[in-house]
Amino acid sequence: xxxxxxxxxxxxxxxxxxxxxxxxxxxxxxxxxxxxxxxxxxxxxxxxxxxxxxxxxxxxxxxxxxxxxxxxxxxxxxxxxxxxxxxxxxxxxxxxxxxxxxxxxxxxxxxxxxxxxxxxxxxxxxxxxxxxxxxxxxxxxxxxxxxxxxxxxxxxxxxxxxxxxxxxxxxxxxxxxxxxxxxxxxxxxxxxxxxxxxxxxxxxxxxxxxxxxxxxxxxxxxxxxxxxxxxxxxxxxxxxxxxxxxxxxx
Length: 250
Description:
The protein is mainly α.
């Protein structure tokens, strides 16, 4: 159906590539609703719409266009929609902004049915195409740095360095460094592996905090500890912590 042999690929390769692509771009299912919710869009509705748009777009790309590209809502326009259109202009709500998005979508659909779209793309210089790609990438990276807390807003300089002592910031920086190292070594699925490692570290830290919160070392009360009568209460029991317990885990 997809002429895999003619295209020099196999079912195994496509399954691995599709799985890696899914986990690499799955973040958009949460990040897109989070950004749109700051414009007043209900999180549940935008969450469902994001998934539906990604499913329909990817199916059309694979079954109709026969092109191995996954399609999902982009990270650039949602930030522009929220911060520039809705929050940047008083009196414009997300409903009015969505009306403009709908009209723009119809115009792009009409352009796609003609040769004008291809001509417009061919008229753009190659260096400008690369610059647009880099600009969008830097914009998305800045959003990630802002949401992770690595950078924060500043009244004078607009951007300032965040609190690098926060656990979430440390985790984000460690995950970023791991991903960059994997990319530099040309390891396949570097983004996916970096996300998995970062997720595992987050799970371990969460479990560590939960264990520390649930653990309540026995206290020495009325001269008894686990039914054993003590003449003098040890310091570790009076403070409520066992010697092996490390508060730094939390």
